[in-house]
């Protein structure tokens, strides 16, 4: 438990590379066909206190008799650092590579071919628009079919016509005018515009005709390259936070290059992830409800571009039966179509797992491509499918990220996977799934009969009984899949057992499970975590019931603080990251004010004014009401730039505990936001959490 050794251990488990994207190219030689898989990887480095990005390439040779099975995998090429790349994309025919790169204060657009750098434009110096968006919410880099144009999203420049010659507007200096943004994780994103580069003459233009009450993103070229399709998020009367929120009002639009815009989807819906079929006939996209749960089970829609008719390919799954597909809960990869345009492949939460699924457009049958009883992986994430070759990232709580590939099988054939890259380290601690059923008095009468799950991870070597750390995810509508988690792995290496709980309201268990938590936060979710802990203690007598701690971030921190207040004799330590402490005082400072009402059971509208009733409900469901009962020592870790949960939430609990002489310690990270995602911050949080747990357990 020396600080230096703990930090070294965290550097080891958090520094393992993770594949984040992949692309496939194909070459037909006289006597054989060759596939090339290029994967981009992220790797944390504590020495630099930053994340590195590199690419690596593999050559695959199919069997001579069966071109849809992999015969030989050649040794991979070297890891090539990728410096400053924000976006990249391969052209569909000539395999030209477009890159948006950051160099100092400038953003460059580069076009590369087989002979090196072919064209370079300094987008910053051209001053046609502001910074290019490289986030997953709005960002894109799309080649036209003719390969003469590129489409991307950037921040709109301020209109110089509103400026007077002395730099002031009629209402004062523009620098003082408040500009809304899109909230946590998108604080520098306000007014996106669609931009097109003509690669023949180097001209950059901003497309006109986007509705003024809409912010465009996730754009792609329509067939023929004379119009573009994009998602538009409505930003009137004001913007709400977008990150982790699939319930924002938005629509699918088609915009011609001459400025004619039409809406392709229904009204008052939430849409995302438009993906065009290889034959150009069909567009699929995800669709959900506006407001309500911040994340939800989504339907998969298909739009026939010729007839303009929309139909549902996959509907919302309310209550999946055991072993059945549980619905779509996450974004589609940028390439998700089979080569024949008849099947769609995606990954999604499935109870305590994450799996890869295929849906056939003709039969609407959903098939799991990853669920194999003998496999050791608890999580499968699709990176891409191109030319019917799938590239996936697999992991489990004791197996770091692994790169695997396989060809999409024909009907009634089993999926065959090949591993391209094993992780550099292996770990021998054990893990298992727990299915948890609420007691009869804990059942939700409106959504009766729901159960939930958890994942128990244990060190392989231990003496006597093992201290248990209860790890609670945030959201609340998110999910702990059985995947590699550096915090869990680090704790297990240090001799702690870890219980990761997917309480009712988590994704992967159906829409009814998500809806059951609305109006029940601070009670149903607290009871569920406690029930999961009791289930784990009863099923595994190696766990020490006298040495229990609870940790979590955001809503996980909210639940951690609830648990030590509602069960003050049960838990001996707590570590909470950016927790919600008092929902009533959070109302005016959060970027997702709608969720503050929804979570406690009140409908939201933009013009809603707080009432004594709504504020009382928020306070009643908050951990601060149990602060006087807290006995467990509390470690608080707060991000000074958190836009979702103000750091003053944690300070509120800190002062309440300090006034009662309760053991409490607060770590303040002034440059970090809600996720506390900076590399040095994560290492600092892990070190302090471990020392806190060791001291008080």
From TrEMBL:
GO cellular component, one term: cytoplasm
GO molecular function: omega peptidase activity; serine-type endopeptidase activity
Enzyme Commission numbers on file: 3.4.19.1
Location in or out of the cell: Cytoplasm
Keywords: Cytoplasm, Hydrolase
Catalysed conversion reaction: Cleavage of an N-acetyl or N-formyl amino acid from the N-terminus of a polypeptide
Peptidase S9 prolyl oligopeptidase catalytic domain location: 489-697
Pfam family, one: APEH_N
Keyword Cytoplasm found: yes
GO biological process assignments: proteolysis
Superkingdom of source: Eukaryota
Keyword Cytoplasm: yes
Residues of the Acylamino-acid-releasing enzyme N-terminal domain: 42-425
Assembly behavior: Homotetramer.
Protein family according to the UniProt entry: Belongs to the peptidase S9C family.
Protein name (database record): Acylamino-acid-releasing enzyme
């Amino acid at each position: 438990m020396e600080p230096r050794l703990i930090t070294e251990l965290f550097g080891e488990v958090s520094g393992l590379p993770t594949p984040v994207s992949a692309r496939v190219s194909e070459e037909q030689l006289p006597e054989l066909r060759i596939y090339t898989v290029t994967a981009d990887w992220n790797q944390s480095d504590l020495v630099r206190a930053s994340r590195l990005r590199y690419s690596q390439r593999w050559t695959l040779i199919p069997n001579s008799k069966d071109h849809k099975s992999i015969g030989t995998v050649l040794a991979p090429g070297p890891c090539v650092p990728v410096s400053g790349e924000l976006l990249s994309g391969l052209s569909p025919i000539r395999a030209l590579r477009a890159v948006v790169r950051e160099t100092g204060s400038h953003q460059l657009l580069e076009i590369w071919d087989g002979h090196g750098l072919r064209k370079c434009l300094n987008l910053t110096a051209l001053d046609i628009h502001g910074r290019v968006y490289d986030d997953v919410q709005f960002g894109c880099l799309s080649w036209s079919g003719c390969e003469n144009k590129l489409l991307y999203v950037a921040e709109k420049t301020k209109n110089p016509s509103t400026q007077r010659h002395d730099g002031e507007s009629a209402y004062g200096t523009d620098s003082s005018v408040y500009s809304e943004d899109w909230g946590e994780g998108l604080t520098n994103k306000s007014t996106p515009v669609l931009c097109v580069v003509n690669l023949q003459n180097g001209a950059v233009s901003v497309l006109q005709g986007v509705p003024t009450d809409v912010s465009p993103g996730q754009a792609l070229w329509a067939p023929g390259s004379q119009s573009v399709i994009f998602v538009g998020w409505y930003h009137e009367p004001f913007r709400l936070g977008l990150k982790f929120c699939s319930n924002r009002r938005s629509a699918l639009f088609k915009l011609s290059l001459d400025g004619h815009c039409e809406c392709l989807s229904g009204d008052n819906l939430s849409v995302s992830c438009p993906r065009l079929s290889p034959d150009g006939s069909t567009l699929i996209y995800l669709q959900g409800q506006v407001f309500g749960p911040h994340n939800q089970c989504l339907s998969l829609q298909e739009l026939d571009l010729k007839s303009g008719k929309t139909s549902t390919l996959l509907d919302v799954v309310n209550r999946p039966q055991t072993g059945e597909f549980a619905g779509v809960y996450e974004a589609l990869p940028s390439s998700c179509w089979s080569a024949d345009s008849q099947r769609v492949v995606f990954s999604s939460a499935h109870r305590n797992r994450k799996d890869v699924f295929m849906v056939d457009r003709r039969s609407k049958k959903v098939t799991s491509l990853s669920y194999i009883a003998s496999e050791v992986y608890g999580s499968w994430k699709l990176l891409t499918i191109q030319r019917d070759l799938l590239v996936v990232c697999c992991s489990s709580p004791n197996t770091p990220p692994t790169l695997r590939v396989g060809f999409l099988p024909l009907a009634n054939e089993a999926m065959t996977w090949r591993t391209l890259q094993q992780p550099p380290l292996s770990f021998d601690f054990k893990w298992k799934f727990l299915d948890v059923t609420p007691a009869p008095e804990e059942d939700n009468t409106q959504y009766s009969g729901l159960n939930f799950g958890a994942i128990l991870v244990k060190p392989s070597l231990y003496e006597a009984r093992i201290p248990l750390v209860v790890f609670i995810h945030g959201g609340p509508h998110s999910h702990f899949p059985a995947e590699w988690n550096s915090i869990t792995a680090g704790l297990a290496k240090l001799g702690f057992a870890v219980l990761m709980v997917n309480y009712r309201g988590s994704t992967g268990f159906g829409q009814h499970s998500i809806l059951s938590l609305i109006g029940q936060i601070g009670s149903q979710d607290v009871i569920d975590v406690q029930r999961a802990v009791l289930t784990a203690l009863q099923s595994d007598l190696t766990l020490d019931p006298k040495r229990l701690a609870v940790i979590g971030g955001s809503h996980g921190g909210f639940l951690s603080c609830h648990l030590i207040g509602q069960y003050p004799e049960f838990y001996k330590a707590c570590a909470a990251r950016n927790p919600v402490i008092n929902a009533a005082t959070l109302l005016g400072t959060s970027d997702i004010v709608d969720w503050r009402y929804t979570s406690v059971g009140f409908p939201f509208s933009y013009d809603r004014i707080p009432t004594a009733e709504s504020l009382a409900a928020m306070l009643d469901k908050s951990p601060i009401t149990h602060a006087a009962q807290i006995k467990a020592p509390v470690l608080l870790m707060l991000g000074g730039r958190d836009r979702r949960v103000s750091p003053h939430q944690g300070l509120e609990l800190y002062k309440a505990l300090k006034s009662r002489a309760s053991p409490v310690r607060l770590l303040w990270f002034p440059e970090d936001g809600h996720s506390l995602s900076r590399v040095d911050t994560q290492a600092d949080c892990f070190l302090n959490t471990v020392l806190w747990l060791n001291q008080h357990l």
